[in-house]
Amino acid sequence: MPRQETHFTDHYAEVCKALGDWGALLLSLDANGKPNPMTIGWGSLGIVWSRPMWVVLVRPSRYTYGCLEETGDFTVNVPPAALDDVAMFCGTVSGRDHDKIAEKGLTVLPSETIRSPGIVECPIIYECKVVQKTDVVPEAFDPRITQQCYPQGDFHRVYFGEVLRTTADPAGVPTLLR
Ligand SMILES: Cc1cc2nc3c(=O)[nH]c(=O)nc-3n(C[C@H](O)[C@H](O)[C@H](O)COP(=O)(O)O)c2cc1C
After folding, report:
1. How many domains does the chain have?
2. Could you tell me the residue range of the domain that residue 14 belongs to?
């Protein structure tokens, strides 16, 4: 069955499992138009300002940070368990000196609503447009979080991406659960 449009809340449990386990791939374009996937383990899918929203946290040291500032949109691609090595690769090397899509043999899929493409090999793809961004306030954290998550500083910028379109490959969704 071909990939089809779906509601953003469909497959929520599978998406949370992947995110908390091997991660999802946040893809944006760099200034030259090169698609750059970066693994995220932290993010939230829900409703903000009466809109479906992915809220993602990106440290300024990531190449992706500049891509998001440049492009203003991104896709969240949920890979199957079998691609956990791809998630590890995209979460440990940088688009500054790697073409991660080419090196991992991934296939991009043009989006319908934004410039950043999706990744064919991922059963669920969300097309998101940045509608707000804000930096976390270091002094406002519970100190346990500062110690655990920010030993070097490098505090996140939080991007709110309105979900404009969600697609799923029905045959691929069960592969999200190990
Ligand atoms: C499982 C996993 C989850 C990650 N989650 C995040 C995240 O939510 N935010 C972030 O800024 N970096 C996160 N990272 C680190 C980036 O993915 C990593 O630094 C990546 O190499 C950055 O790529 P880029 O320089 O091409 O943007 C994660 C890494 C892994 C392996």
Report:
1. 1
2. 4-176
Burial of residue 139, with CB atoms counted within 10 A of its CB: 0-12 exposed, 13-18 middle, 19 or more buried: exposed
CB 159 within 8 A of CB 52: no
Quote the longest CA-to-CA distance of the chain. Answer: 50
Ligand 1 geometric centre to CA of 92 (Å): 7
In this prediction the pTM is 0.97
Q: How far apart are the CA of 2 and the centre of ligand 1, in A?
A: 30
What is the best residue among 56, 62, 94 to mutate for testing ligand 1's pocket, by most ligand atoms within 8 Å of CB? 62
Q: CATH number of the domain that 17 lies in?
A: 2.30.110.10
Please write the tens of the pLDDT for every residue from 90-136.
Answer: 999 999 999 999 999 999 999 999 999 999 999 999 999 999 999 99
Q: If you measure from the C-alpha of residue 150 to the centroid of ligand 1, how many angstroms do you get, rounded to a whole number?
A: 14
- Is residue 66 lining ligand 1, measured as CB closer than 6 Å? no
Nearest to 8 by CA among 126, 137, 130, 131: 126
CA distance 103 to 76: 19
